[in-house]
Amino acid sequence: MGKLILTARGLNSETGQKIIRKCLTEEEEREKKTILLISIQEYRIDEILKQASMELGFLEEHIFLASGQIDLKKM
């Protein structure tokens, strides 16, 4: 069974990486895990998120990225 980890802290932050490390025990082999990243297109951090995931031990072929466009003016 998989885990769903929701965080808005960001994998590119020290706090975000600590959250992920805490949720995934050392026994779990991250290179066999799949990670789905959702980002906002305007932030242009997709590559940063992918790199941070790889630094945590996820393999690039198991990293899936969904980035959408939002109208920041409506917020």
What labels would you give this structure?
single chain, 75 residues, alpha+beta
Describe, in short, the structure shown.
With about 80 residues, the protein is of the alpha+beta class. The chain is built from two helices and two strands.
Task: List the topology elements.
Layout: H1 14-23, E1 35-40, H2 46-55, E2 63-68
Parallel strand pairs: 1-2
Describe this structure in words.
- By secondary structure, this protein is an alpha+beta fold.
- It has one domain.
- Helices cover 27% and strands 16% of the residues.
- It contains two helices and two strands; from the N terminus they run αβαβ.
- It has a two-stranded parallel ribbon with strand order 1-2.
- The radius of gyration is 13 Å and the shape is globular.
- 8% of the residues are buried.
The class by helix and strand makeup works out as: alpha+beta
Give the helix proportion (percent range): 25-40%
Poorly predicted tracts of residues: none
The number of helical segments is 2
Distance, first to last CA: 36 Å
Q: How many E strands?
A: 2
How would you state the average pLDDT, rounded? 81
Major sheet: order of its strands? Answer: 1-2
**DSSP strand (E) fraction?**
15-25%
Please state the oligomeric state of the protein chains shown.
Answer: single chain
Biggest β-sheet: count, sense, barrel? Answer: 2 strands, parallel
Radius of gyration: 13 Å
Total number of distinct structural domains = 1
What's the shape? globular
Topology pattern, helix = H, strand = E? HEHE
